[in-house]
Amino acid sequence: MGNSLATTYTLIAIAAVIAAILLSSRRQPRQGTKPAQPVRGDDLAVWPFAPMPFMTDSEVRFFALLQEAMPEHFIFAQVQLSRLIQSTDAQDAAFWFNRICRMSADYVLVDRDAQTVIAVIELDDWTHDKPERKRADQKKTKAIESAGLPLIRFDGRRMPSATQIRHEIIRQLG
Fold first, then answer.
1. Is residue 136 within 8 Å of residue 102, measured between CB atoms?
2. Would 97 be classed as within a structural domain?
3. Any domain includes 74
4. pTM of the predicted protein model
5. Which residues contact residue 44 at a Cβ distance below 8 angstroms, ignoring those fewer than 6 apart?
6. Which tens digit of pLDDT belongs to each residue from 65-93?
7. How many domains does the chain have?
8. Residue 105: which H helix or E strand, with range?
9. 76: domain CATH number?
């Protein structure tokens, strides 16, 4: 009995030493690794941000007309594409996410179930005539249409009426 008691105490002592070694190694930074550095601005009590308008004046006007034209649907404005579509390429999903993560849809027409996207709607103004904006629009169009979502574009320079908007949406959704 004395021998088994000594063995038990020895095992407890060994376990305590191993636990102490493991705990102390976690507290010390490993060689070659730097402790985490604070990110610029983390130490500021207030960050330098101020509110800004959510939409331009023409986008606000069009939003009101769109709501009047399609009252049976929900309409969301300024929605990130990454909330609407996802990559089907699981092995390269991060690459494809990065292609769309900074793109947004002007408006999204959604069924009353709040889950089903009916169409993505873009309001194009004079800035869409610039070559770099045309390339960005082509990429956005490719992403949206690749996901199988209808994309409907309206010209903001010729603001349509609510009736014209409704007619065009119904025509394009066929």
1. no
2. yes
3. yes
4. 0.74
5. none
6. 999 999 999 999 999 999 999 999 999 99
7. 1
8. strand 104-110
9. 3.90.1570
**Residue 17 located in a structural domain:** no
Q: Which amino acid is at 169?
A: I
DSSP 128: G
Domain that holds residue 160: 57-173
> Do 76 and 173 meet the contact criterion of CB atoms below 8 Å apart?
no
Token couple for 11 = 């095992």
Residue with tokens 């996410």: 97
Nearest to 84 by CA among 34, 31, 146: 146
Instruction: Name the more confident of 146 and 32.
Output: 146
Strand partners, 153: 122
Domain-embedded: residue 105: yes
What is the residue type of 171? R
Across the strands, what pairs with 76? 108
Alpha-carbon distance 106 to 63, whole Å?
Answer: 9
